[in-house]
């Protein structure tokens, strides 16, 4: 038997010091407890691929213990000065600990604030698994069993952490070969029957890494769609995978690939991109979202809401509600999204009228100041199609220049000018802001003069 590849060198080279230190502590503890412990999944995949994702605390460390994972987690938490959240029914636990535990004074590799880091610990136990029919009848180690239940070859590698074999790579399914060949490959033909969400995961990894879903894998995804396995899938699980996809840089490519596999329509009929120009619309929408992200404004986008608004163009409110329910959104979220969509439907014609009548920017601000940014971005795409580049330009200007415009004077200035405390103060400030938006005034002094003018008119 060939010696196992040891990846200790690249592990030390490519991961931050504190992370290596954490893994060493895990290995020493494993030795003391007489169990084997491995780091598995995405960590190993990204290490082998040399992907720059090493930024605590977003980096996941997933451990598998050949023994009692929960007991292991408690000991580990003690060593790291952390705490444990356990999930008894799954025999898993999360160790949460302060980042400072792993930092020396000299370790200023990153700008750290004190943060809580996490390590996921799972249990691999032979008797826990019912052997799938696809497995050979040889007795397997529990780590091998654990890896056999995973989604793709690239995600089914493990690195041993026990001190004497620290860095040994367990790669039973040739994940390394598939990384070289840039292929997403499943471990057995029933993989999508076992768990149809893997179809979404296959697309996510394919698009993220610019890999290719293998021919067998592609055929089996199409098969799962034909068998309506996606239709029957729990909405919560779809939502969880969808939300991860919507955070990907390659989100548009993922959406188009999902369409290619007919997965969108299988999730819910209102998600289908069946009209000839639907794909163009979605493409343009994500271009606009990219543009918005580049502005680095404080107002963050709810990726799910934006996706749902864009995908449900031309869909009735009833169908839209059906989609939200299909995805098992909470009732609070359903209400919120329905409200924003109705706001969008109501305000869109008003924005068109504003444009046609060539009204000032301040009127647009009054129309849009309480409208969600996701809906405004939707309008940028939608109204450009119907009214051309100029409307898009004006809406863009509104977004980055006008929406968060502030004035220099405050309520105290208005009080000093003799107005009594009350709603009037706010009204005057609002009018000063609108005048500033329209370029009538600029700077503190002009604002004061303008406010005085307003007050005098009001008093008269
Ligand atoms: P990311 O970089 O997106 O976090 P990840 O691989 O860490 O990728 P997770 O969803 O955290 O993604 O999953 C961790 C590991 O758990 C995967 O690498 C895979 O081995 C396994 N896994 C996750 N979901 C499934 C699934 N649906 N079926 C089988 N194995 C899965």
What does this structure look like?
The protein has 460 residues and is α+β, with helices and mostly antiparallel strands. It has four domains: 8-180, Beta Polymerase, domain 2, CATH 3.30.460.10; 182-267, Hydrophobic Seed Protein; 277-404, Orthogonal Bundle (cca-adding enzyme, domain 2), CATH 1.10.3090; 411-459, no CATH class. The protein is 54% helix and 9% strand. The protein is built from 22 helices and nine strands. It has helices spanning 8-14, 17-33, 42-49, 69-80, 142-148, 175-180, 191-194, 198-209, 215-226, 235-245, 251-260, 263-267, 278-294, 303-311, 317-326, 331-356, 361-368, 373-387, 389-402, 411-416, 423-437, 444-459, and strands at 36-40, 61-66, 83-87, 92-98, 116-123, 158-160, 169-170, 183-184, 212-213. The strands form two sheets. It has a seven-stranded mixed beta sheet with strand order 3-4-5-2-1-6-7, sandwiched between helices. A hairpin with an 8-residue loop joins strand 6 (158-160) and strand 7. It is globular, with a radius of gyration of 28 Å. The N and C termini lie far apart (98 Å). The structure holds adenosine-5'-triphosphate (ATP). Adenosine-5'-triphosphate (ATP) binds next to helix 8.
CATH architecture title of the largest domain: 2-Layer Sandwich
Approximate shape: globular
Q: Helix content range of the residues, please?
A: 40-55%
Question: Which class of the largest domain in CATH terms?
Answer: Alpha Beta
Which class of secondary structure composition applies to the elements? alpha+beta
Which segments are poorly predicted (pLDDT under 50) over 5 or more consecutive residues? none
CATH superfamily membership of the largest domain: Beta Polymerase, domain 2
Biggest pleated-sheet summary: 7 strands, mixed
Strand order within the widest sheet?
3-4-5-2-1-6-7
How many β strands by DSSP? 9
């Amino acid at each position: 038997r060939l010696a196992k590849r040891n990846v200790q060198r690249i592990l030390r080279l490519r991961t931050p010091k504190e992370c290596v230190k954490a893994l060493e502590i895990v290995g020493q503890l494993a030795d003391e407890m007489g169990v084997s412990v491995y780091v598995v999944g995405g960590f190993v995949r990204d290490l082998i691929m040399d992907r720059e994702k090493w930024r605590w605390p977003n980096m996941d460390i997933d451990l598998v213990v050949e023994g009692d994972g929960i007991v292991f987690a408690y000991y580990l938490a003690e060593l790291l000065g952390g705490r444990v959240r356990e999930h008894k029914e799954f025999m898993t636990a999360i160790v949460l600990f302060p980042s400072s535990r792993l930092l020396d004074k000299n370790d200023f590799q990153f700008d750290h604030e004190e943060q809580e880091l996490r390590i996921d610990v799972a249990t691999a136990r032979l008797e826990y698994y019912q052997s799938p029919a696809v497995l050979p009848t040889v007795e397997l180690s529990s780590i091998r069993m654990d890896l056999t239940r995973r989604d793709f070859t690239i995600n089914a590698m493990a690195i041993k952490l026990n001190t004497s074999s620290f860095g040994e790579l367990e790669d039973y399914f040739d994940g390394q070969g598939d990384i070289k060949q840039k292929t997403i490959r499943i471990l057995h033909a029933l993989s999508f029957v076992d768990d149809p969400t893997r179809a979404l995961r296959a697309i996510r990894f394919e698009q993220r890494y610019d890999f290719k879903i293998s021919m067998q894998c592609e055929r089996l995804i199409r098969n799962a769609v034909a068998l309506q396995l996606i239709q029957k899938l729990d909405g919560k699980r779809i939502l969880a995978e969808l939300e991860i996809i919507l955070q990907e840089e390659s989100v548009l490519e993922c959406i188009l690939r999902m369409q290619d596999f007919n997965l969108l329509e299988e999730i819910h009929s209102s998600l289908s991109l069946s009209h000839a120009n639907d794909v163009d619309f979605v493409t343009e929408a994500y271009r606009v979202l990219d543009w918005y992200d580049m502005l680095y404004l404080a107002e963050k986008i709810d990726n799910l809401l934006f996706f749902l608004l864009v995908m449900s163009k031309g869909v009735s409110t009833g169908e839209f509600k059906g989609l939200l329910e299909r995805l098992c959104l909470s009732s609070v979220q359903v209400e919120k999204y329905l409200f924003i969509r109705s706001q969008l439907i109501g305000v869109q014609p008003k924005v068109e009228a504003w444009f046609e009548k060539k009204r000032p920017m301040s009127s647009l601000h009054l129309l849009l100041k309480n409208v969600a940014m996701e809906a405004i971005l939707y309008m940028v795409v939608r109204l450009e199609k119907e009214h051309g580049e100029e409307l898009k330009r004006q809406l863009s200007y509104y977004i980055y220049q006008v929406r968060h415009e502030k004035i220099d004077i405050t309520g105290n200035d208005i009080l000093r000018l003799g107005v009594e405390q009350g709603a009037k103060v706010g009204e005057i400030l609002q009018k000063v802001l609108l005048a500033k938006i329209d370029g009538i005034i600029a700077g503190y002094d002009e604002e004061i003069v303008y406010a005085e003018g307003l007050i005098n008119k009001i008093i008269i």
